[in-house]
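Handout, section 4.2: multi-component inputs.
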Amino acid sequence: MSVDFRKDIFAKERDDNLNEIGKPTRRQDILGHVTGRSPFFDDHRFDGLLHIKCVRSPHHHARIRAIDTTRAETMPGVVRIIRGSDVPVNLNTLLSLLDFGKDDEPVLAESKVAYMGEPVLAIVAQSEAQAHEAVAAVRIDYEVLPHVLDVEEAIKPGAAVVNETYPGNKFEFYGGNDHQKLRFGDVAPAFARADHIVEGRYQMAPIEQAPIEPNGAIAAPQTNDRYVCYTSTQGLFFSLGTVAKLLNVESNRLHFIGGTVGGGFGGKVDSLCEPLAILGAMLTGRAVRYVLDRAEEMQVSAPRSAELWYVKDGLAADGRIIARQLTGYFDSGAYTRLTGYGVVKCIGHLPGPYTIPNVHSDAYCVYTNRTPATAMRGFGVTAVDFAIERQMDKGARALGMDPFEFRLINAYRDGDMKAHRRLAGNCALIESIQAAAERVDYPLGAEFRAMTSMSGGGGERALIPPTRTERLGMLPAGTSTVEVKTTAPGLVPQFGVDLPVPATGLPAPSPTPTPVPAPKAPETRATTYDYGASGLSAPPAPKEVPPATEPAALTKSQPGPVTPKPRYSRYSSLGNRRR
Amino acid sequence: MPVKIESMADLDAAAQVLAGDKTAQVLGGGTILMPRVNAGDVALRRLLRISDPVLRKMTVGGPEITIGAGVSMADILAQQGLAFLHPAAVCVGGPAIRNMATLGGNLFAKAPYGDLAVLLLALGTEVSLAGGRTGPGAARRDPIEVLFRQSTDARAPLVRAVHLARPKAGQVQFHKMARTNPRGPAVVTLAVSLEVSAGRIAKARIALGGIETRPCLAVGVARTLEGAALSEAAITRACAEVLRELTPRSDALASGWYRGEMAQLHLRRILQQMM
Ligand SMILES: Cc1cc2nc3c(=O)[nH]c(=O)nc-3n(C[C@H](O)[C@H](O)[C@H](O)COP(=O)(O)OP(=O)(O)OC[C@H]3O[C@@H](n4cnc5c(N)ncnc54)[C@H](O)[C@@H]3O)c2cc1C
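Output:
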């Protein structure tokens, strides 16, 4: 199938004289793939290579009373049995390297297992078959605990505590918040005056990345007191840093060699195999290979999280969405991995590619006794998009309107203010819908064929409306910066939640910004900050804020043209790399 | 311990080995067993590869059909005389699987597999078993249901062949509903056989796969149809009976609720096609 480059659309925004972008190009690795010469991690063989197989939990949730390895230890070919107590730092969370989340997951479970398939022991043997035999010979005495597999059940009072690091079964975001908020405008009055209210509940299953090559690593001691590790990882340095932390070694003693990844899609960032392969090499002095088999790849390598969403829309009879409220629960499984980060990403994506003046969203990262979830192709975005687009179809039906046209009415125009306070630019949704409709001979009305994302935006639509928040009450129109100052010991001395303001060349904000009232001393210090108005990129802060020397201040955005600074989100580069 | 694979030329001798060694298993095409071997399943110790030609024998010409348990899906698909089995045989995996997958193995496959077995069940197939019954005394046959009553983990008897009467034109319909098309594992598989006489359904057999771990018959649903003419009202009655009789299982492919809905939907579609 030939690719149709629609160069007529956005012709002004494109430079056709670039060497690579916009030109068909050959993948760098394709020659190796089609000639069968691409080297994979598993193509490295060492003399006397040892193999790891893990003893895994048969229960969703159980306390480990006793582990009996007497028979397994004496079986032919068994070289070493690794326990949790052999792992120097047996608690980690992947994004601790980026200061996100608390350590919550052991490499090998010691006192309890929190999902079916969680590894408890790693058996190092001369052959895979011998490792399997020894796995079958281990006896573990479990005290089975009540488990919870459903996000809504998990956050009810009295639910089984899945993850002791987060006893409420909810991840803690910056500042100890148990969810991420997005507030824009005020949904309640908008719902009250809406002509139609449309509600939906949407549920998405976890999705396994299903790479052809499973997760795996081969590690071997080198003569220079270093360990080489051939790995299928998607994030070579990320994995190296993770292993350095877990095994408590200087990272310069680890020599990671990546290469062809036999399919990753997010499923190879968790460093599932590297720590145990290297630890095995350290403990035995020999080369050690640890590769998940297909069933393990499906069951215990992390999928994209399941999600549950409630969406409520207030619609005007003319087809405008005047308010949207979303509440989402991400099923992180038993540990955090990357799901907390996925929630942050999600909040920045809401309410979908539509200009909606009143948006209210809460998103939770919830622990259940299921396989931990992680990155997977647009995680945090794709599942809620499913919910949003089903909701759009439902809305169109409620209005008796064509679903394409309903979307065209509400789609972002360039210069519109998004709910998370970025100005929309290069909004191609309108043009994409028009091109899709044209391709399938879908009849769009003339006025819809004439629409463009390049006009009709900005002006009034570029404004930040007065916004209702729980902690600070009503924020005045145009509020884009919430600043908190404190010099209390042990606290982050100062932080600001910057929110971008309209850039030069784009429609300016309201010429007469609503005056901002003089900052009042808040009633309690806990109300001195609120990420509610931003939802994004707030730095960490403790839950209880002791008295600060300076009162919190609310400042509005500077009026007048400001050159937009590209905001660097701490995690965005990771997210991009992963995709 | 390594896995031992032994070749045996005689079916009945193999049956004796099986009877005497609990760890031994018959190897058909190996599409289910070999992945388990490769994954290091320590329960598999001894596999018997039986080369007895009786397992590959097909008698297709007459009204009574016999198919050896070692016949593959591809063999069935190559037989025009077995066209009524093709809708099921063609949806077992892809071409590589169908070249290896045997009828015998399909009879022991757990859900979501066992598509051909579901169709054979609807057709009122009988099975003959191996073991000490050679010669003229080998005529004993059991209804295929006996294989599905026991759990797959129990010692399975060694199947020699299946026997069935050629269905009349239009007597049988088969539907497989999968989430990935064309040939994913089944959410539900349905096979319906209706024998009609004088405008009324004289005999109905409705077999389902995916609902339980093994293929099962919906006897109550069949009873609502028997004696009636096939009408919209009869179809509605039959569909309403499905969940009274069966409790569909949940697994990673589908919830029990969804399976129940799909079973009713496809039963309705099949019966409407047969109207
Ligand atoms: C990728 C893939 C896709 C698949 N898709 C489908 C599908 O769409 N539909 C479907 O139905 N199945 C599917 N299967 C499952 C399987 O291929 C079929 O069910 C096949 O018919 C099994 O036959 P086999 O000869 O390969 O069984 P084997 O693996 O050889 O044996 C399976 C079991 O049957 C027993 N057995 C074999 N022959 C006999 C006998 N004569 N007497 C007693 N016991 C016996 C064996 O001991 C073993 O326990 C799929 C499998 C794979 C790997």
